[in-house]
Design goal:
- By secondary structure, this protein is an alpha/beta fold.
- The protein has one domain: TIM Barrel.
- It has helices at residues 3-16, 19-28, 30-33, 42-54, 71-91, 110-126, 141-153, 170-179, 202-218, 230-243, 260-268, 284-293, 295-305; strands at residues 58-63, 95-99, 131-133, 159-164, 184-187, 223-226, 250-255, 273-279.
- The longest helix is centred in the N-terminal third of the chain and has 21 residues, at 71-91.
- Residues 45-297 form the Proline dehydrogenase domain.
């Protein structure tokens, strides 16, 4: 990561954490967030997924929300996900779901958080749907991995998690989870983490990302490679071809609103491509992380504002 990009990211995340800025953004900035947020409502999000499916793009739906303060909020998010699963089954869209453990109550009461997540995974299994437990900041890394392992031990194997390539621990985590046959989404990582736990330079993150992809594919684990970076996309294609790994043994994942033409192109080329589709009213934390990833994302929003 260049000095300029690091400074941009740190500055934007610091500004975004200011409660006054957040209040103003939520009040006046929702129109700008439409670049990355599919809809306020489930019905609207399902319609967007139908449009993606027509282009050969699969989806994972994320009902936005994190950092709750009361357990009744967690119950509300749990129920929203149960309705989301019903909506997917009823509409027959090609989508699974992604959720954040913090929105299910993990930080407030780990057992209640686990029970909420388990209820969602159990219901998803009834209609053969997959649940991805997203990875948040490092205070939740081990707890999230432990939740997924516990679910698998209890026979709920329609669930996987996320490994972030910028964390120093990720190679060991990926190796252990692959041996346990737990499906992984591999990402660079989007949270602000110190050098004691995370790589600080782009080249290091890219090298580790490639290492993780090779590790999981070699283990025969169905792997989701979540990246917009052509270095990662091209490397994955070449690695799979060289190793004789079929295209249905992995998928690419990209975010809603970013590189949509490339997503459609990958589908036409015969690759499995899944779009991460967030929806709901609690969009601010997700939106600011997307803007902070790189200055180009901010310019995308500015251009979108004038169309």
């Amino acid at each position: 990561m260049s000095i300029g990009t690091k400074l941009y990211r740190k500055t934007l995340l610091t500004i975004a954490d200011n409660k006054f800025v957040e209040k103003l953004s939520v009040k006046y900035g929702q129109k700008l967030a439409e670049k990355f947020i599919a809809s306020d409502t489930l019905a609207g999000a399902l319609n967007k997924v139908k449009a993606l499916n027509r282009k050969g793009i699969m989806a994972t739906l994320d009902h936005l929300g994190e950092g709750i303060e009361r357990l009744d909020e967690a119950a509300g998010y749990r129920d929203a996900y149960l309705k989301l699963l019903d909506g997917i089954a009823r509409s027959r869209v090609d989508s699974n779901v992604s959720l954040k453990p913090s929105q299910m109550g993990l930080a407030l009461d780990p057992e209640t958080g686990y029970a909420n997540i388990r209820a969602i995974v159990e219901k998803a299994r009834e209609t053969n749907l997959f649940v991805r437990i997203d990875m948040e900041g490092t205070p939740f890394t081990q707890a999230t991995i432990d939740i997924v392992r516990r679910l698998h031990r209890e026979g709920l194997t329609n669930v996987g998690t996320v490994i972030q390539a910028y964390l120093l621990r990720s190679e060991q985590d990926a190796a252990e989870l692959s041996r346990e046959r737990i499906r992984l989404r591999l990402v660079k990582g989007a949270y602000k983490e110190p050098g004691t736990v995370a790589y600080q330079h782009t080249d290091e993150v890219i090298d580790n990302f490639r290492k993780l992809i090779g590790l999981t594919l070699d283990q025969g684990i169905y792997t989701a490679v979540a990246s917009h970076d052509d270095r990662i996309l091209t490397w994955t294609k070449n690695y799979a071809a060289q190793k004789g790994i079929p295209r249905d043994a992995f998928e690419f994942q990209m975010l809603y609103g970013l590189r949509m033409n490339e997503q459609a192109k990958l589908a036409r080329e015969g690759y499995r491509i899944r779009c991460y589709v967030p929806y709901g009213s609690m969009w601010y934390p997700y939106y600011t992380r997307r803007l902070a990833e790189k200055p180009a994302n901010l310019w995308l929003v500015v251009r979108h504002m004038f169309h």
